[in-house]
Amino acid sequence: MESSRTWRYSVFPSFHGQDVRKTFLSHLRRQFNSKGITMFDDQDIERSQTIAPALIEAIKESRISIVVLSKNYASSSWCLNELVEILKCKNLVMPIFYQVDPSHVRKQIGDFGRAFKKSCASTTKEEKQRWIQALIDVSNIAGEHLLNWENEAFMIEKIAKDISEKLNATPSRDFDGMVGLKDHVKELRSLLDLDCDEVMMVGICGPAGIGKTTIARALHSQLSSNFQLSCFMKNIRGSLNLGLDEYGRKLRLQKRLLSKILNQKGMKIKHLGAIRDRLHDQKVLIVLDDVNDLVQLYALADQTTWFGPGSRIIVTTEDKDLLQQHGINNVYHVDFPSREAALEIFCRCAFKQSYPPVGLLKLAASVTELCGNLPLGLSVIGSSLLGKNEDEWKVVMHRLETSLDQDIEAVLRVGYESLHVEDKALFVRIAVFFNYKERHLVTAMLLDCNLDVEYGLNTLTKKSLINISRNEQIVMHKLLQQVGRHAIQRQEPWNRDILIDAKEICDVLENDRGTQIVSGISFDISIIGTVSLSQMPFKRMCNLQFLSVFKTGYDGKDRVHIPENMEFPPRLRLLQWKAYPGKSLSPKFNLEYLVELDMECSQLEKLWQGTQPLANLKKMSLLNSWYLKELPDLSNATNLELLDLRACENLVELPSSFSSLHKLKYLDMSGCRRLQVVPLHINLRCLELVNMNGCSRLKSFPDISTNITSVDISYTAVVELPETVRRWSHLRSLQMYKSRNLKAVTHVPINLTYLDLSETGIEKIPDDIKAVHGLQSLFLSGCRKLASLPELPGSLTYLSANECESLESVSCSFGQSTPYVELCFTNCFKLNQEARRRIIQQSFPYGWASLPGRELPTEIDHQSTGSSITIPLEGKNPFSAILGFKVFLVISPNYDAEESRNFTLFCRRIGGPIDATPVYIIPKPRAEHLVMFHFDLLNQEKYLEVDEEGRSSDGRNDYEIDQVYEDDWSYEIGPGEASEYPENNGNIDRLICDSGEDNIEGNKHIDCWSWLVLCFDVSHIVTTIGSLVWGGS
């Protein structure tokens, strides 16, 4: 690389002696000497027609070549051959057009052309062509033109400065170690397609503080040497140029770019064609950082034709729409780093290392979460915590929860301040009330706010201030939420339409200071003492639409005391009151406008009486409202989409009005343990998900919807499914775990992928299950009356039938449609011989199986009792090595282990990676069991661990290894694919098993291992490529 090379000369000059040696060149040499720049001196070299070898060597050993193109330069074949050699070396070249026009050099015309023709008269056609191409190439390189300077001395000074800067420009290490930067740069290099000769514009987009500028700087640092000219124009947004019209702003921006890229201070331009005129024949790299206005792009990069072939223009912005409008379709979106990467970014700033010190992991992870994985926040807060003690950390964390660091706010606030006043209002409402809420809900709640919500959401999305998730949730970064809250706090108190300060809210509610301007209240009651509200605390706030009362920390104390039947404002669209202290809502409560009702953890026993206008209600949550005894009439809630009744333990009955909820999509009643009555024929056409897990008194499940996709009635008393189950063609998941009264399932829905019948009373699986071609997981564990398994679909990848104590026959074959299958028949002691044969002889290449007993197939050649087995090839196999084998473990129980424990087995090669990859989980056996799985020698990621007594990580013995067996597998590899491992002495493969943690220090095992499978001594076969090995010693 150039950075590591030692150069003999800094500069090699190519010139015509009579033209410039005693004038221009002498002054240039003196200037170079004053700056410590060494320039090759050709005084001792004899001139001739053929360029001297010493001269060629000097060209190669010079970092930069200066070509002084004067009137008589082309009259010398020496000079022309010298130029050819310079361009052939591909070092840095700077042309100086001394009293000649670059176009005369390029086209060989004028005085320069006449001198060139004389030189060509006595040369070959091939050499002439080389000279012409060299002159064209050098004239296309950016350099200095004497005619552009009023004073030759100034030009010489500028040349010396430029050369000095180029000599000092070594590859930057400023970005080494920046977390994730390498991946970003790799992706962008691919997008830039640097081998393409077309001019390309590429955008880098993402929210403020995500690292766009850093990525662009790193790119510029790495790529600039590949271009004739380059510049990084930072913070273009900040170039406001107040007092100028649009033309003046464009002219100012062009002047700034050209001055920077040409390194000429005080440059003057008189028209907007200046960039095109100066750069159209130059290969340039230009980074336009933090662009926020189309005018800026029009001024600096309006057309690709402004720049020479191979040029790249990189634009960083928060506004995706701006890139689209300018026709920039190659856009790289910078995403938030992963949790692990964010923690490392923080640690590098806070601890100057990539991981937290011992004892500080939890604190570091908490701060990382508070920063929301935003790189700017992580670096600023991390740096501020450098050298601080734990108490100081906690102070900073407390501040982060309620306020922003001023450096972070200065960056993030810019995007907010650039918004239109209506978009600012929308931004603030999302920050305070609507983060993580569904888009259509927010649109409905802002219906009367005089805002163009859809346009505003699109604007905020394009400016990277919010994100719309795949499930249409509006997501705003938590630090941007703080920006919104700060925007409210900067307003004068009498102008605030949203109240968020707890003390201010207490004063307003207790002293009746509310006004018509207030549209929203966000009241965190965890930071106040107690407040007692009057019968009509909201009477002056007739335009209040959003009321959110919550606790950031739950302490069990009632901090807000309300009178019975306290009145709410008449136009509420959002009522969110966590731990509402009243037993019911006011009979005067106007529900006509309500879109969302969230009364989580309330003390409500009922909501309201009679029929209410509920046409706008879309979402209702009464989660953990333990005292709720009844639901109101919901017949008018015809647009309700989500109903959350989880853990409403005293709720006994769903009202008959449920049949009117035809827009309902999600019904969650898990934990309603007293629920007994559900309307039988409600058939809700939009219902997709029903969760009644834990409704332990529910005996019948209704004909609820033919469009249902997921049903969970685990831990219920349901006896049977309705007959209409055969018409549930959209059902994907059906869970009935521990519904012990369930005796039979007559039909299996045709599109099911997940079926859990564990610990039910079923005696038979319906035969039509074989037609369910998408079924992947089937759970039958603990079905003690199940006697046989019918033919199952070939799509099945997981079957759990452990503890099926009556199971005798298995009619199915596995692994037909998928290479990975897990079969668990632990403690199924009545399996007949045919069933055992079917299970043992499965041919799937990945996965595992377990069943009682120790009987093995007769075709197994190698087995051993004890801790190890060795299988030499002894010439039995052809010139190839088997890469995998089937392992059979005979395990026996340890009766001192816990009754309900499951264990994870892992597989690895000795010397393989320490991190374990699970192979399977096996329930605790009550007798000897056979466990079998395939072990792939090529897969470096999997490894098996089972220590000598099946010891788990807590030291308790759960099962014991009794025998190890091996069977050849079908995979083979030729010698050319084997890997060489020079440290291997025995030419054997080893497999170790352990159910506990890996006790390895370097390559030394510090604990005993139960057994080793030692096989494939192939040193006598693979002699030309070294030894085959799959692990260390």
Characterization of the model:
The chain is α/β, with parallel strands linked by helices. The chain contains 25 helices and 44 strands. The strands form 10 sheets. It has a 20-stranded mixed sheet, with helices on both faces. It has a 5-stranded parallel sheet with strand order 6-7-8-5-9, with helices on both faces. Helix 25 links the parallel strand 30 and strand 31. Helix 11 crosses helix 13. The radius of gyration is 39 Å and the shape is globular. It starts with 8 loop residues before the first strand and ends in an 18-residue tail after the last strand. The model is unreliable at 873-882, 907-918 and 938-1033 (pLDDT under 50). It comes from Camelina sativa (False flax). Keywords: Leucine-rich repeat, NAD, Plant defense, Repeat. InterPro entries: AAA+_ATPase, Apaf_helical, Disease_R_plants, Leu-rich_rpt_3, LRR_dom_sf, NB-ARC, P-loop_NTPase, TIR_dom.
Topology:
Elements: E1 9-14, H1 17-20, H2 24-34, H3 53-60, E2 62-69, H4 77-89, E3 92-97, H5 102-107, H6 110-120, H7 125-139, E4 144-145, H8 152-168, H9 181-192, E5 200-205, H10 212-223, E6 229-233, H11 246-261, H12 274-279, E7 284-288, H13 294-301, E8 312-317, H14 320-325, E9 330-333, H15 339-350, H16 361-370, H17 375-384, H18 390-402, H19 406-417, H20 421-434, H21 439-445, H22 453-462, E10 467-468, E11 474-475, H23 478-489, E12 498-499, H24 502-510, E13 520-524, E14 531-532, E15 546-550, E16 560-561, E17 574-577, E18 596-598, E19 619-621, E20 642-644, E21 666-668, E22 689-691, E23 710-712, E24 733-735, E25 754-756, E26 777-779, E27 788-789, E28 798-800, E29 809-810, E30 820-824, H25 833-840, E31 846-852, E32 862-865, E33 868-871, E34 881-882, E35 884-893, E36 902-908, E37 918-923, E38 929-936, E39 944-945, E40 959-968, E41 972-973, E42 1000-1001, E43 1004-1005, E44 1012-1015
Parallel strand pairs: 1-2, 2-3, 3-4, 5-8, 5-9, 6-7, 7-8, 12-13, 13-15, 14-16, 15-17, 17-18, 18-19, 19-20, 20-21, 21-22, 22-23, 23-24, 24-25, 25-26, 26-28, 27-29, 28-30, 30-31, 33-44
Antiparallel strand pairs: 10-11, 31-38, 32-40, 34-41, 35-38, 35-40, 36-37, 36-39, 42-43
Helix pairs in contact: 2-8, 3-4, 4-7, 9-10, 11-13, 15-16, 15-17, 16-18, 19-23, 20-22, 20-23
